[in-house]
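Posting for a labmate who doesn't have an account.
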Amino acid sequence: MRNNDAAARHHRLIYLLSVAHRRLQRWMAARPESEVTPAQAGLLFILGRQDGVLMGEAGAALDLGPAGISGLVDRTAAAKLIERRADREDGRAWRIWLTPRGRTALAQAKAGAAEVNAALTEGFTSAEIDVVARWLTSIQGKFPRGADE
């Protein structure tokens, strides 16, 4: 189903997505109570759901390639929020685990995310947010990872 409506073509969606992403990332990173970057928070959320995931699994969940997840894990480990351990079954693979400091940072990141989500959804009905979420999710299927690599 294609939307050929003339009004839809004039929303400048690429520009709006780009600006919204940059502003949200900068705002979140600049918050004084923010101990972690938005990317690190994403990694902590993944480990909060399943501690000890393979680095590749975490990278896939965050839509990062090997170099991207490696750098993120390096920075997050340097901040003592996670630790890397060799996989017991495959010595070439690494699993990542939350540290006690990482668990504290995760709790703070969850509270911060709830606050940001409240601000993002303010002034919109649940039905409107459902449409926005469906639209944003659809982008992943329309532009799958790997198509640009």
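Reply:
Got it, the structure tokens are right above this. The helical segments are 13-30, 38-49, 55-61, 66-78, 100-121, 126-142.
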